Amino acid sequence: MSNTYNILSHFESYKDGLIQEVISLNSFLELYVHIRRKRNDRLEILNKSPAFFQLTQESLLTSVIVGLTKIFERRNKNGRTIYNFLNYIEWNYKGIFLNKPKLNTTEITVDIIKEQRFKLEQQDHLLNNLFAWRDKSFAHMDKKYFEDRAQLGEDFPLTIKQLRLLIELVAEILNVVEGAYSDSSWSFNATNVTDIDNILDWLHKVEPYKGEINNLVREGYLNRNI
């Protein structure tokens, strides 16, 4: 098995793994936003199981923040981070790109890799806030923020718009690489976000008839046990 084959195999696995992770994180984030928006027209239904929907939203947001810190973890020298991905391309450029057919697209160069790194560096302040959320709330129980979670948002502001920006940044970098490698690109659009509407809409429709439905269920149960 040639060294070039190993380099390409690792590169494709690395690239595809990051792509799937970003698609998942974007879906988690947009589902979190969608559920919050449903309070405008399905608040009554959401309030039937407030603990469930609150825990669902907390889990989605936690997954997004922790997942993004894994991708942007600069200190993890061996992890599948966006920084290590760019390093791998730079170190193995010949094995990845020089044997590929020439495509009608921009080729990866040292300058393009530097440009992607510069885009990452421009988000250092935002990334510091992201890691503060992970380190002070999710990975560790910081006393100050354990007792007052709202203070975390004041000390380290982090908005949905900013989380989207980080997701879009990684997606953009991955598509720059994908374009040079295969002359194609990926769609990172969130998937199946509105599936929950089917459940909420059905519950909304049957809510006025809940009493009748319960009576029918009871009658059916009693009839089966006569």
Characterise the protein shown here:
This is HEPN AbiU2-like domain-containing protein. Residues 11-191 form the HEPN AbiU2-like domain. The protein has 226 residues and is mostly helical. It has 2 domains: 3-191; 194-226. Helices cover 75% and strands 0% of the residues. It is built from 12 helices and no strands. The chain has helices at residues 3-37, 39-46, 50-71, 82-91, 93-98, 110-121, 124-138, 143-147, 149-155, 160-182, 195-206, 210-224. Helix 1 runs antiparallel to helix 4 and helix 4 packs antiparallel against helix 6. The radius of gyration is 24 Å and the shape is globular.
Question: What is the compact description of this entry?
Answer:
With 226 residues, the chain is mainly α.
Radius of gyration (CA) equals 24 Å
The chain-level mean pLDDT equals 85
User: From the helix content, strand content and strand pairing, which structural class follows?
Assistant: mainly alpha
Query: Helix count?
Result: 12
Q: Spans of 5+ residues with little confidence (pLDDT < 50)? A: none
Give the overall form: globular
Number of strands: 0
User: How helix-rich are the residues, as a percent range?
Assistant: over 70%
User: How far from one another are the termini?
Assistant: 73 Å
Protein name: HEPN AbiU2-like domain-containing protein
InterPro entries: HEPN_AbiU2
Domain HEPN AbiU2-like: 11-191
Organism: Pontibacillus salicampi
SSE layout and pairings?
Blueprint: H1 3-37, H2 39-46, H3 50-71, H4 82-91, H5 93-98, H6 110-121, H7 124-138, H8 143-147, H9 149-155, H10 160-182, H11 195-206, H12 210-224
Helix pairs in contact: 1-3, 1-4, 1-10, 2-11, 3-7, 4-6
